[in-house]
Amino acid sequence: MTQPQSVGVVTPQRLRFTEPLALRSGGRLDEYELVYETYGELNAARSNAVLVCHALSGSHHVAGHYADAPNNIGWWDNLVGPGKPLDTRKFFVIGVNNLGGCYGSTGPASVNPATGQPYGAEFPFVSVEDWVESQARLADALGIERFAAIVGGSLGGMQALSWTLLYPDRVGHAVVIAASPKLSAENIAFNEVARQAILTDPDFHGGNFYAHGVVPERGLKLARMVGHITYLSDDAMAEKFGRSLRHGKQVFSYDVEFEIESYLRYQGKKFAGYFDANTYLLTTKALDYFDPAFEHAGNLNAALAAAQADFLVVSFTTDWRFPPERSREIVSALMHNRRHVSYAEVECAAGHDSFLLDDAQYHGVLSAYFDRIEVR
């Protein structure tokens, strides 16, 4: 049996679009760029392409590493590559940084051609549907009329679902992992707390902090800390940190005492060092607004009637942010519409972040599903 391998050294690519993109918010981008990476080879029939959609803080860098940064490994490297569940010997895999992102695609930190200054607060709101539209234009430019599959976890799973509704004839299979048909009020609440941490940071300057040479670090740190709590399960936190005290005793201070405090502060500080505050705001609002059933009077069965793809839906038992019952809502609506749908509820203690991990049961499910996708 061949051992799984890395795709090795990869190189980001950039494509400029000059056809204006009308956005759901009423805004518009007259021109924009998308940064993307590809792994594997597109076959002669152009029938083996798989699009990987990223989550909130993800990017186009899905697998492999850069020549000048061997430790910068793609966020789903354990899933994509020769001999891995999404096998690049069979599939041509594409990762793209969403519009509004901060990894090279046009976003708030990009220069606005109309002003010669960073967009900042002037960058328009973007939606999941807008991302799908821009991804479809990228596919057109690459000569891909139909994807063998579109896959994503969390917010990426919502994009995969949206693809099947906006471009039903361009998707063979949709793999929707740790996702939801819409956010609960609790999830919107967590997002709002995180946004307020950024918006009220004195260094935010109404979104135009670039001109001041500062970063709203405090707000970003708090936003990430709040978000990170929701990504982990209580069991995972208990196993990893428990109530361990750094000094072995209570020192009665507001400095770091418990190991979980140290972990959250570390994650927050690291995140603030590389992620853009405006991108965080835009992306969480895109999450909040996603609701395919909204235009169907809340009827998810009616909303998913347009889908033609076959589906794999995966949830995790300890994911309390997007719990299994939310995935089962998607499955039920698809079955109502007589779609071919497979469902796996994976026992994994890691919570929402399980979709990023190398869990044997989870990867076994994905391998089995991708193996049965026919590519001609």
TrEMBL record:
What are the binding positions for substrate in this chain? 224, 353
Q: Which UniProt keywords apply?
A: Acyltransferase, Amino-acid biosynthesis, Cytoplasm, Methionine biosynthesis, Transferase
A Gene Ontology annotation in the biological process aspect, one of them, is:
homoserine metabolic process
Q: Where is this site: Important for acyl-CoA specificity?
A: 321
Query: Which chemical reaction does it catalyze?
Result: L-homoserine + succinyl-CoA = O-succinyl-L-homoserine + CoA
Main localization category: cytoplasm
State any GO CC term.
Answer: cytoplasm
Q: What class of enzyme is it?
A: transferase
Q: What is its EC number?
A: 2.3.1.46
**What metabolic or biological pathway is this protein involved in?**
Amino-acid biosynthesis; L-methionine biosynthesis via de novo pathway; O-succinyl-L-homoserine from L-homoserine: step 1/1
State one Pfam family annotation. Abhydrolase_1
Could you tell me which InterPro entries the record lists for this protein?
AB_hydrolase_1 (IPR000073), AB_hydrolase_fold (IPR029058), HAT_MetX-like (IPR008220)
Key word Mitochondrion present? no
User: Which molecular-function annotation in GO is an example for this chain?
Assistant: homoserine O-acetyltransferase activity
Q: Which residues form the AB hydrolase-1 domain?
A: 48-357
The record's subcellular location field reads: Cytoplasm
* Positions of the catalytic residues: 154 (nucleophile), 319, 352
Say what the protein does. Transfers a succinyl group from succinyl-CoA to L-homoserine, forming succinyl-L-homoserine.
Q: How does it assemble?
A: Homodimer.
What the entry lists under HAMAP family is as follows: MetX_acyltransf (MF_00296)
What family is this?
A: Belongs to the AB hydrolase superfamily. MetX family.
- Name recorded for this polypeptide: Homoserine O-succinyltransferase
The encoding gene is metXS
